[in-house]
């Protein structure tokens, strides 16, 4: 029986993820931004990016008359 191993860190608004000792990935919820061979490289890349904050759809503004 095989169990998947997941290592995930949230840094500067980005997820730094490693699955089954594969490459380290820097991601947002929607995009993979890079793949790296070491955790240190992935963390350095995430640190070099501007802080990420997921944007939500804004409700239309209503006008008060």
Task: Give the arrangement of secondary structure elements.
Elements lengths: L5 E6 L2 E6 L4 E4 L4 E5 L2 H10 L17
Antiparallel strand pairs: 1-2, 2-3, 3-4
Structure, explained:
It is built from one helix and four strands; from the N terminus they run ββββα. The protein has a domain at 6-48. Strands 1-2-3-4 form a four-stranded antiparallel β-sheet, covered by helices on one side. The mean pLDDT is 86. By secondary structure, it is an alpha+beta fold. It comes from Pseudomonas graminis. This is DUF2188 domain-containing protein.
Task: Give a brief rundown of this model.
With 65 residues, the chain is an alpha+beta fold. It has one helix at residues 39-48, and strands spanning 6-11, 14-19, 24-27, 32-36. It has one helix and four strands, in the order ββββα.
Main β-sheet, spatial strand arrangement: 1-2-3-4
Q: Give the SSE string.
A: EEEEH
Distance between the termini: 66 Å
Looking at the structure, what is the overall shape? elongated
Looking at the chains present, what oligomeric state does this protein adopt?
single chain
The portion of residues forming beta strands comes to 25-35%
**Mean pLDDT value:** 86
The major sheet is characterized as: 4 strands, antiparallel
Percent in helix: 10-25%
User: What's the number of helices?
Assistant: 1
The low-confidence parts are: none
Structural class: alpha+beta
Q: Report the strand count.
A: 4
Taking all Cα atoms into account, the compactness measure Rg is 17 Å
Organism: Pseudomonas graminis
Protein name: DUF2188 domain-containing protein
């Amino acid at each position: 029986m095989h169990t998947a191993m997941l290592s995930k860190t949230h840094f500067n608004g980005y997820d730094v993820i490693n699955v089954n000792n594969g490459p380290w990935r820097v991601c947002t919820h929607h995009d993979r931004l890079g793949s790296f061979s070491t955790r240190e490289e992935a963390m350095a890349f995430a640190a070099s990016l501007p802080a990420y904050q997921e944007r939500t759809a804004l409700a239309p503004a209503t006008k008060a008359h």
